[in-house]
Amino acid sequence: MTDYDDEHQPPPNLAAEALAQLRPVAEEAYLISLLTTITARDLREEALARVRPEDFSTVAYGGLWEAAQRLHAEGKAVTARTVAAAADTRNELAERTLARFVGAVPNPVDFPHALAEVTRCGQLRRVVEATVRIQQRAMTAVDGSAALAAAHEELDNLDTADLGQDEHTRTFRDVLTELDKELRNPEPHRVIPTPWHEVNESFSGGLHRGRMIIIGARPGEGKSVAAHQLAERAAADGHPSVIFSVEMGRLEVAGRIVSNGATVEMGEITRRELSEYSWNQFHEYRARAQDFPLTINERPDLTLGYIAAQCRALKRRQGLDLVVIDYLQLLNGDRRAPREQQVAGISRGLKQLSRELDCAVVVPAQLNRNSVARGKAMLSDLRESGGIEQDADAVLLLARGYDENGEPNGMLNLNIAKNRFGRMTEFELPWRGYLSRIG
Fold it and tell me: Which CATH class is domain 3-163?
């Protein structure tokens, strides 16, 4: 018999004690303070992507965090005022809670620990809560078998995210079974055809979801034209696509797409002087293209966290097969790190995003001046970081063609300099810059 049999010494509530210990007060307060600090934008975006509202031990903090995630996914500013207004709890309560953190300056050094501790405690707390439910259901079960079945049900309801397990790990038997099923019944629309037959041949049919493709070129050599053309073709084929444009506004992006799709000269669109024939072409194109599943985001201060949040929201709402980000070196990274490390981190993050969301990611990138002096671009010419060529599944290098007199010959050289899933090759296509079109 245990000491707990004494009616004057009731057994302690072990679950309550465990839950009390799984409340990282300081770390939770640190993360909530990120919602009120403008200068902590990059930290806030990463935290919002990785921490779940249910990871917090209090309903007030969880409600605020959920409101901030919702604002961030919608591309709206995350501030103490906007979070308080968006919170499901009464605004006065939310405002009072956030007011405690206004003016706080979170130390970036503490960020990894706070992130890990809040996530860890949230996972363990959910396990403890499951054991409490098991105990409660066992006390009212008709027999031991029913109690055991209830326990299994509660444990099965703890998904891999709850337990922090690696849901990406599978036995080879399971993987072979999955591959067999996919080979017999391929997922439709898995491949996204490009506008160019030669590229489709080299890429085993076109762009594949889960891969990152870099389009490298010097300024004005066609990388944005190629990227927009890829997005328009994908959307026309029914593949939900999004273009993130740092360099151009939405009307300029749309103008280039219309020039290509409607065969209207870009000069007319730029001058806003369309001929009668061009107006007819525009209206015909608008009628067939206005419902393309294509989204354009023109935010000028893009970060990896913002892109990831927007893509996750699009994936949930309408599906997402293709992401175009124009262009890599214009994205903002962690300003505390050297530029090469920033670009490498962005490149690695975009590759991870393509895997996470199972979509193709196309990223134009600038080449350095060495390619001009040499006369032919190489992988090492990708500007600012060697990490780009390492992360990319395929790299397509573009260069305008010239005749023996050094004059443009109307052709564009396309060099597939890296291709993990097909052959590397080089070919030429007509360059029709006046129509924002290659080929």
Answer: mainly alpha
Cα four-point dihedral sign 314, 261, 249, 226? positive
CA distance 406 to 429: 18
Domain with CATH 3.40.50.300 in the chain: 191-438
CB 150 within 8 A of CB 141: yes
Would you say domain 191-438 falls under CATH 3.40.50.300?
yes
Amino acid at 422: G
pLDDT in tens, 354-404: 988 899 999 988 887 766 555 677 777 776 666 777 888 999 998 888 777
